[in-house]
């Protein structure tokens, strides 16, 4: 049994093996990617020079900055709006507890496709299709929104209590009313949560689709980089951060207005 | 022959959570070096606040807490930690680390004595490990050292809590409603355990409780509180129904 | 004595029409304001955003043209052009996630109000986390390419720096939700702060922690795939080359490869979640 000198803890071999495997992987992968200490040190030197050139931040082209930011905002708003409008019916069609298979299957495939590709890739394709500019950005982020909101909306619907739906149906309500009174109240909280999350996410993404020509401040940023205008780059980055922080605060207010509690369980 | 110095002395302890609304209205209490003292009284009368003031889980507004030659109310930082090592505490909700094993929970009583690095690597001194096994024997959990705390029953968890507190080799054992979440039979077992350990370790035990019968049965001394003051202090045999009415019943303005 | 019927009636006041209000007036005003602002913003956006209608009408035609050029997928291109880059992408995602976790742990701890109860420190930590999240990984990649030159170092650091905000924020929230009673008990034993962290907080947040790391790794696999577009290594560079040369079949190959890797990563993550969490 346990006399003096007994071990307090059984040895967990799996955990030890796990940590060792992790350490081995890190060394292996770093060497595959050609991380050498020399390159890193040189990079640090570059980094210092870089930071010097970035500060103080200077707004070299205020018009360009302003239009870029505004365009990003517009892209985010419109993409979110269109995305939500499309995602709601599609998500509803995709919910397996309410809809038959011939509806859920295509809807789920559509949603999965929308989520498969990074918004930047989708933006590149749309640039090819509709040309450079905000339209491509809006469409690309709309697709991303449909994917995200559609999936979460379908999941939320699949998790509702069917008893409430049954009760409303038993009153003889029409299908639309069953949805309105039986389904929507249960999913509304989560919907507000992920809708505001997606708006925030679109705001972030809209700042970078411009790098591939899909409009917004990303374009301004990219050309500043190419001109080695690093103090302008710093200014642009700071304004992006500021815009997103304001966006987060506003999203928090919206959640506060529509929900009982402030915090919501978003992905 | 002078009486031995008390283990703990409270002088004029006052605690206000909000200004002008004191929960403790000047407590004077002297606890000897042995025996089980039960504090009884209705909810909201400050029993829990009193116990928590002793080891400064709650900061008193005024007064002194004299323990081992220091005023605990004045201590902070490392000195406070050192003082807390010498006081063991048992909680109503057990307050174990649920995901860790019984042994880890008992050994966490030594965290005040072991460096963070050693604690993280689970390198406790062998003497501590041996003592932990002994304590598990005493509380009747010898078969469970590697079981996760959240797989135990309430009574078993409280035993782990007691073992953890005694593991500190404290000079004083506090218990904040230790049996309020347990069934009657288990409550009796837990009280027996605490009384026994208090005697064998030679340390005083102060227990907060709302079950008067349990208090009568196990306490050597009963302190009754009402409205933030002590209104009774004596052996269980001296506790009459009149006193109980004074403690629990009646309007606040009567006192 | 005549029974006064009016007695019973007088007990009831004349019933004023009691309307059922779902929200208080203040709430109604707030909701209305939000709707108004949203609609106004949308209308303004729709009117001022630059859309050239001809391009919009042309779009379906263009898309069809694009898809035709991408078919058939040039699988022969895969071994020499794509495979190594794909593996590099996985390494970038993994190393970047590991690095991010190392950096996010202290920041996340500092941001948790219950662990570190100093408001200025909490604010500073949260500021770091917000900034990390607000800068897109592609933009981080641009920065690091400018500093470290093109290649996987830039990509890994970009992934790492972007992920700090995500991991740190969720970790901080998990810490703030841990059971305060357990922590109180450990403090009562006189344990130093670090020990309370290691033995009190860490066991409680451990499951959430691994879940967060797994989640972020999954996202990072997607993110790493496109960083090459700005020169930060991985399969994005193969994509960039093919796009610049208008080799649409190869573009299709790369896209297919990315898609497959993302699907595999999702499956791996789901399986790991089932077993370990």
SSE layout:
The complex is a heterotrimer of chains A (267), B (255) and C (277).
Chain A: H1 13-32, H2 37-54, H3 62-93, H4 101-116, H5 119-130, H6 134-158, H7 162-170, H8 175-206, H9 217-226, H10 230-258
Chain B: E1 8-18, E2 21-31, E3 36-40, H1 47-54, E4 62-67, E5 70-71, H2 77-85, E6 87-90, H3 102-107, H4 116-120, H5 126-139, H6 154-167, E7 172-176, H7 184-201, E8 205-208, H8 212-218, E9 221-226, E10 229-234, H9 241-248
Parallel strand pairs in B: 3-8, 3-9, 6-7, 7-8
Antiparallel strand pairs in B: 1-2, 1-4, 4-5, 9-10
Helix pairs in contact in B: 5-6, 6-7
Chain C: H1 5-10, H2 25-48, H3 53-70, H4 78-111, H5 119-134, H6 137-148, H7 152-176, H8 180-188, H9 193-227, H10 235-244, H11 248-276
Kindly describe this structure.
The complex is a heterotrimer of chains A (267), B (255) and C (277). By secondary structure, chain A is mainly α. Chain A has 2 domains: 14-44; 63-258, MetI-like (MetI-like fold, Orthogonal Bundle), CATH 1.10.3720.10. Chain A is 76% helix and 0% strand. In chain A, helix 3 runs antiparallel to helix 8 (175-206), helix 4 packs across helix 6 and helix 6 (134-158) packs across helix 8. The longest helix of chain A is centred in the first third of the chain and has 32 residues, at 62-93. Chain B has 255 residues and is α/β, with parallel strands linked by helices. Chain B has 9 helices and 10 strands. Chain B has a 6-stranded mixed beta sheet, sandwiched between helices. In chain B, a hairpin with a 2-residue loop joins strand 1 and strand 2. In chain B, helix 6 runs parallel beside helix 7 (184-201). The longest helix of chain B is centred in the last third of the chain and has 18 residues, at 184-201. Chain B starts with 7 loop residues before the first strand and ends in a 7-residue tail after the last helix. The mean pLDDT of chain B is 92. Chain C folds into 2 domains: 25-66; 77-276, MetI-like (MetI-like fold, Orthogonal Bundle), CATH 1.10.3720.10. Chain C is 79% helix and 0% strand. Chain C has helices at 5-10, 25-48, 53-70, 78-111, 119-134, 137-148, 152-176, 180-188, 193-227, 235-244, 248-276. The N and C termini of chain C lie far apart (80 Å). The chains are: A mainly alpha (267), B alpha/beta (255), C mainly alpha (277). At the A-C interface, helix 1, helix 2, helix 3, helix 5 and helix 6 of A face helix 2, helix 3, helix 4, helix 5 and helix 6 of C.
């Amino acid at each position: 049994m346990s006399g003096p000198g007994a071990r307090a803890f059984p040895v967990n071999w799996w955990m030890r093996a796990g940590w060792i495997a992790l350490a081995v992987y890190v060394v292996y992968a770093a060497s595959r990617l050609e991380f050498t200490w020399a390159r890193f040190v040189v990079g640090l030197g570059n980094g210092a020079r870089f930071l010097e050139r970035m500060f103080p931040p200077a707004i070299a082209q205020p018009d360009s900055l302003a239009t870029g930011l505004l365009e990003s905002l517009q892209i985010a708003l419109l993409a979110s709006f269109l995305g939500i409008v499309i995602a709601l019916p599609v998500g509803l069609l995709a919910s397996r507890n309410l809809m038959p298979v011939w509806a859920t299957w295509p809807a789920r495939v559509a949603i999965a496709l929308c989520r498969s590709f990074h918004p930047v890739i989708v933006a590149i394709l749309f640039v090819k299709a509709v040309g450079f500019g905000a339209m491509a950005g809006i469409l690309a982020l709309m697709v991303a929104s449909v994917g995200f909101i559609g999936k979460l909306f379908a999941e939320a619907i699949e998790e509702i209590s069917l008893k409430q739906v049954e009760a409303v149906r038993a009153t003889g309500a029409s299908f639309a009313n069953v949805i309105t009174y039986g389904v929507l109240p249960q999913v509304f909280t989560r919907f507000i949560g992920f809708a505001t999350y997606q708006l925030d996410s679109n705001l972030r993404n809209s700042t970078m689709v411009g790098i591939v020509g899909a409009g917004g401040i990303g374009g301004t940023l990219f050309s500043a980089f190419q001109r080695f205008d690093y103090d302008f780059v710093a200014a642009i980055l700071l304004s992006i951060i500021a815009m997103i922080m304001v966006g987060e605060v506003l999203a928090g207010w919206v959640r506060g207005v529509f929900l009982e509690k402030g915090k919501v369980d978003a992905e | 022959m002078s009486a031995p110095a008390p283990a703990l002395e409270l002088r004029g302890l006052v605690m206000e959570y909000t200004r002008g609304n004191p929960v403790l209205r000047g407590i004077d209490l002297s606890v000897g070096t042995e025996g089980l003292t039960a504090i009884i009284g209705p909810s909201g009368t400050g029993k829990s606040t009193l116990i928590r003031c002793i080891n400064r889980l709650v900061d008193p507004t005024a007064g002194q807490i004299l323990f081992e030659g220091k005023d605990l109310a004045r201590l902070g930082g490392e000195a406070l930690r050192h003082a807390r090592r010498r006081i063991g505490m048992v909680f109503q909700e057990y307050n174990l680390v649920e995901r860790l094993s019984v042994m880890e929970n008992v050994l966490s009583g030594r965290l005040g004595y072991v460096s963070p690095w050693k604690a993280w690597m689970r390198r406790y001194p062998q003497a501590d490990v041996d003592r932990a096994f002994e304590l598990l024997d005493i509380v009747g959990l010898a078969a469970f050292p590697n079981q996760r705390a959240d797989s135990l029953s309430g009574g078993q968890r409280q035993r782990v809590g007691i073992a953890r507190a005694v593991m500190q080799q404290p000079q004083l054992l506090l218990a904040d409603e230790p049996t309020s979440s347990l069934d009657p039979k288990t409550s009796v077992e837990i009280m027996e355990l605490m009384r026994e350990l208090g005697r064998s370790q030679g340390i005083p035990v102060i227990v907060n409780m709302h079950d008067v019968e349990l208090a009568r049965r196990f306490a050597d001394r009963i302190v009754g509180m009402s409205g933030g003051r002590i209104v009774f202090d004596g052996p269980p045999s001296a506790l009459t129904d009149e006193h109980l009415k004074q403690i629990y019943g009646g309007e606040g303005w009567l006192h | 004595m005549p029974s006064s019927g009016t007695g019973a009636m007088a007990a009831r006041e004349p019933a004023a029409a009691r309307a059922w209000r779902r929200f208080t007036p203040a709430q109604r005003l707030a909701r209305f304001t939000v709707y108004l602002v949203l609609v106004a913003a949308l209308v303004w956006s729709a009117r001022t955003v630059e859309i050239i209608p001809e391009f919009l009408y042309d779009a379906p035609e263009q898309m069809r043209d694009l898809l035709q050029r991408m078919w058939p997928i040039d699988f022969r291109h895969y071994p020499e052009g794509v495979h190594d880059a794909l593996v590099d992408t996985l390494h970038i995602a993994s190393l970047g996630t590991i690095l991010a976790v190392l950096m996010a742990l202290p920041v996340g701890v500092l941001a948790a109000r219950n662990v570190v109860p100093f408001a200025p420190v909490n604010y500073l930590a949260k500021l770091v986390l917000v900034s990390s999240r607000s800068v897109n990984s592609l933009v981080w990649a641009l920065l690091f390419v400018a500093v470290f030159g093109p290649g996987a170092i830039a990509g890994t650091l970009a992934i790492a720096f972007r992920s700090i905000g995500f991991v740190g924020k969720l970790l901080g929230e998990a810490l703030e939700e841990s059971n305060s009673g357990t922590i109180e008990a450990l403090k009562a034993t006189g344990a130093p702060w670090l020990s309370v962290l290691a033995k009190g907080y860490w066991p409680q947040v451990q499951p959430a922690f691994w879940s967060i790391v797994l989640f972020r790794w999954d996202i990072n696999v997607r993110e790493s795939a496109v960083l090459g577009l700005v020169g930060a290594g991985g399969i994005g560079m193969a994509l960039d080359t093919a796009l610049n040369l208008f080799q649409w079949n190869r573009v299709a190959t790369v896209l297919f490869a990315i898609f497959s890797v993302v699907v595999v990563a999702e499956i791996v993550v789901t399986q790991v979640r089932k077993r370990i969490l």
